[in-house]
Amino acid sequence: MKTQPNAEGSTAPPRRIGAARFKEQCLSLLDRLGPDGLVITKRGKPVARVLPFEQDSASLIGSLRDKLEIRGDILSTGIRWDAEC
Length: 85
Prior knowledge:
elongated, about 15% helix, YefM-like fold, 3-stranded mixed β-sheet, alpha+beta, 1 helix, 3 strands, about 80 residues
């Protein structure tokens, strides 16, 4: 099975789980679904792959409101320099 880089850049193979176990634990597995997803197997052969749904980046706008505090001038490095030198 071909692997693709995950969010951290590694190409670790996705976790595998048998179809019967997936059926028993489906909801809890979906709650803990990692970025690499999950491969569902039958008799040891892959039959399906479950991947997390990509969220629209627009939904992230404002998500950290009231969680961050900006101190100082964020456009400055804090180092004085003279371009004429």
